[in-house]
Amino acid sequence: MLKTLSKWFLRILVGLIVLTVAVLFWYKGAIKGIYGANTEVADHTAFARPTEFVAVTNVHVLAPDGQTMLPNRTVVIDEGKIISVSDAAEVPTNAKEIDGQGKYLIPGLVDSHMHLHRSPNDLLLYVANGITHIRDLGGYAENLELREEIEQGRVGPRMFVASPPINTKGFIEGTIFEFLTFHKTARDVEQANEMVKEFVDQGYDAIKTYHLDMPSYRSVNKLAAELGVSTVGHFPLSMELSELKITQQREVAHLEEIISVLIREFGSINKNGSDNFFKHVEARSDEIIDDLLAKDMTVNSVLLYMENIHDQFSDIESKLKTIPLEYANPALVEGTKLIPGYRIGWLPGFNQFEAVSDPSDAEYKEYDIYWRAREKAHHILLKAMIKRNVKIVAGSDSGGFLVVPGFALHKELQSLNQGGMSTAQTLATATKNPAVLMNSDAGSVEAGRRADLLLLNKNPLTDIKNTQAIDTVILKGRVFDRQALDAMLKAVKDANQRSRKVNIDDYLNG
User: Fold this and answer.
1) Are 485 and 406 in contact (CB under 8 A)?
2) Overall average pLDDT of the 75-88 stretch
3) What is the average pLDDT across 337-354?
4) Which of 168, 200, 230, 509 registers the highest number of CB atoms within 10 A of its CB?
5) What are the distances in angstroms from CA 412 to CA 109, 405, 443, 486?
6) Interatomic CA distance for residues 182 and 249, integer angstroms
7) Above pLDDT 90, what percent of the chain?
């Protein structure tokens, strides 16, 4: 009898283990699907172009200082490089001429904070929107392969790929978390350091920090600096802003990192009052900025993402109608409810920022006050940073909630402009500033620079919205006219539609 019970117990145990493993693998596959792994991939080879010998004539060119447009210039491009920028009207023999009369030539744009996830179609969206360089801040290993493919000629923006985010977690929690996500977890300082060495050996462009404990955070930054690799990312959940005086972190992933610590310092916004919170932000700004400047730290803006949150909270249906939803990866838009109580997706019922209580309820009012205050705090800190010339780069955090790849960077620039930057300062956050940060050979229209350029029909120095008036994109000397760019957009839109499981017609703005 005892042997029989033991056999049955063993069988049940084995069955439960097999079932658990099966569920975990299913869950892992489902998460990959959410981030776009099962979406049809548009044929990028249809847009392949050779590098050309090109002369853009009679064009206004953004001056190297980014402050003015130089009229009647001829820009000659060969073998993917800018050969000359002059006021000579003569076109070299055999050069393909692009008439720039009445047009404006600027460097290609850079989205300094984005996430490709598992959505290679987004590469076409970036190019079609004039973005010639992207910085994936916390990338999948597969993105290293995509980076190489693009360098070898695949149509897509140049890629800067940060490592998978490093967290500190215990063994069991960390093992499960790492299995289900692309994040990496370290149990202690030694393991965190080993990850840094491994990522450097694999060729990542930077180390992404996430929720590390303080000893690991400091050690990771120190080791990365010794190895000649920058760090970028989130602050530890327990970090005090006084750490900025000594940190070796070179780049803050978004303005929100600082605001989050300020909220923790201040306490409950609802209990202590929004106005008092704003005074706290203003009072702390100068010391924070002193430390950022002393450590030569760069801050990613990611302002649009924060501005979107309250709109999603208060009226998700209306907000969805204001974005080009048809171009976002449908799997990410549609979302799923894999974990009870945890929502991931953009549509109503799946969006984690969507209000779950009635406007008359106390809970709704508390969140309404919180999200409004958090957004305003970003603008207060941003204005203080602009006044004191903190290094800021424009990052959209595309792939996040309601942030559509490619399109969102233009909206981010508009938010920065409305937040207090001049048009020239704003344009620099997506051209010159990230080029300096990455030591890139692009970022300005000068001889010897990589020919990543954007030809516009309107002057972006008179209105930053004119970055959207795209006539032609030149990507390392390859020319994509408006017809080609429109075809890219259509290819992605069609692939998304064929992969779509939920009808989104009610949210399209025509």
Assistant:
1) no
2) 95
3) 79
4) 168
5) 12, 11, 18, 22
6) 22
7) 81
pLDDT at 358: 87
> Among the residues of 203-329, which ranges form H helices?
214-226, 256-266, 269-272, 274-294, 303-320
Q: Give the closest residue to 249 by CA, choosing from 226, 217, 290, 227.
A: 217
Average pLDDT estimate for 88-111: 93
Token pair listed for 104: 């404006």
- CA–CA dist 86, 84 (Å, integer): 6
Integer-rounded Cα Rg, in Å, for the chain is 24
CA diameter of the chain: 99
CA–CA gap between residue 143 and residue 150 (Å, rounded)? 10
- The whole-angstrom separation of Cα 157 and Cα 393 is 17
Residue 181, judged by CB atoms within 10 A of its CB (0-12, 13-18, 19+), counts as middle
Cβ 87 vs Cβ 74: under 8 Å: yes
Question: How many Å apart are CA 138 and CA 176, to the nearest integer?
Answer: 19
Decide if 393 contacts 255 (C-beta within 8 A): no
pLDDT computed for residue 357 by the predictor:
84
Long-range contacts of range 197-203, CB-CB < 8 Å, 24 or more positions apart?
197/223, 197/227, 199/163, 199/164, 200/224, 200/227, 200/229, 202/141, 202/144, 202/163, 203/144
**Cβ(469)–Cβ(106) below 8 Å:** no
Rounded to 5 degrees, φ, ψ at 418 are -70, -25
Q: Tokens in use for 267? A: 């306490």
DSSP structure string for 340-401: TTEEESSSTTT-TTS--S-TTSHHHHHHHHHHHHHHHHHHHHHHHHHHTT-EEE----BTBT
Give the tens place of pLDDT for each residue, 266-294: 999 999 999 999 999 999 999 999 999 99
pLDDT > 70? residue 371: yes
Burial of 405 (0-12, 13-18, 19+ CB in 10 A): buried
Contact yes or no for 452/12 (Cβ under 8 A): no
C-alpha distances (whole Å) from 219 to each of 244, 254, 291 are 15, 22, 20
Amino acid at 438: M
- Residue with token string 């690799």: 229
- Residue (of 53, 70, 52) closest to 61 by Cα position: 70
